Amino acid sequence: MNKSFIPFNRILMGPGPSNVNPQVLKALSKPALGHLDPQFIELMDEIKSLLKYTFKTENEATFVLSGPGSLGMEACLVNLVEPGDKVIVAIGGYFANRMAQIVEKIGGHVIAVKETWGRAIDPQKFEDAFKQNPDVKVAAFVHAETSTGALQNAKVLSEVAHKYGALVIADTVTSLGAVEVRVDEWNLDASYSCSQKGLSCVAGMSPITFSARAVEHIKKRKTPVQSWFNDLNLLLSYWNGPGKRAYHHTAPSNQFYGLHEALLLLKEEGIENSWRRHKENSNKLVARLKEIGLEPLVPENERIPNLLTIKIPEGIDEAKVRTDLLNKHNLEIGAGLGELAGKVWRIGLMGYNSSEKMILFCINALKDVMR
Ligand SMILES: *Cc1c(COP(=O)(O)O)cnc(C)c1O
């Protein structure tokens, strides 16, 4: 007989999703509202204002897409890139590769600046690509490359791109809420994130922001945006419309309650405090991992604090360790992705999970299964 589904109470310490704050889970079960209900429009405005705080931006075009981080990636690219445009993509991992694939689907011309997986993009290499391609329209990079554990110097990369007149798209899917992100100060023209990593919410929402310059660029496109769902002009008529908003799609009201609660909790903590907490706990976790003979792949000054890639020691069956962690300790950590498959584990300390208690739990579980 069919019966209600009861999920295991897993500890999610991989590259995402991470565990949802219990207060967020409670918010999700409030009564549904219509997507044009005046009270719901008020909630949307609240979410917008909390997202501006989180992204450190005054951008009017700051809102949330009803879909995962990948939808935000596609939205930024499909709005800013026209067929035939040259786009520089800094590629040092799996997610930057995905950006390049999307550019190609749109008919853009990818100029790849390749970096070793596990290292931050070299700004000099990035600049050389602009020197050789002065007609580049858009530059894209992944701030925190979750597949390798490397964090880019977003401010410097953005400066380089602007020097050559390009618009900048930054993926902040893993960094937002957990690592310093300053959209306005760093002059990022478009950025997108997700709900299930640093924000401790359920998956399926993508916070996104566009600068005034980016919005202007989109209005002046020679060709129509090649997506109905992700066309910024249509999305803004729902999010920023004067007075009465226009129906675009049925916004998932309960998910919005969850995101609102998650953003509120982040603001209560103070975003700078959250950045600091993630950094401190990261340092503690690295120290404890070293004690049991495990070393991070990425040099310290290029490392994402909330997502560590750990080199797998000689003679260890990496898949068995992960299976044992899951079966014996209810603990999920991530496998290596792409070029790093079989070479690293990925351990996330994100949002609600970035705490001393979780560090201890993870270390003890690892010690137990590696014995
Ligand atoms: C997780 C992730 C994505 C994709 O997000 P989804 O919510 O899985 O679609 C994109 N970029 C980076 C850097 C990520 O870590």
Tally of alpha and pi helices: 12
Bin the helical content: 40-55%
Q: What string gives the helices and strands in order? A: EHHEHEHEHEEEHEEEHHHHEHEEEH
How many individual β-strands? 14
Q: Specify the CATH architecture of the largest domain.
A: 3-Layer(aba) Sandwich
Strand percentage: 5-15%
Give, in spatial order, the strands making up the sheet with the most strands.
2-10-9-8-5-3-4
Q: What's the number of structural domains?
A: 2
Q: Low-confidence stretches at least 5 residues in length (pLDDT < 50)?
A: none
The CATH superfamily of the largest domain is identified as: Type I PLP-dependent aspartate aminotransferase-like (Major domain)
Enter the CATH topology name of the largest domain: Aspartate Aminotransferase, domain 2
The CATH class of the largest domain:
Alpha Beta
Cα distance, first to last residue?
41 Å
List the bound ligands.
pyridoxal-5'-phosphate
Structural class: alpha/beta
- Largest beta-sheet characterization: 7 strands, mixed
Rough shape? globular
| Mean of residue pLDDT values | 97
Radius of gyration: 21 Å
Regarding quaternary structure, what we see is single chain
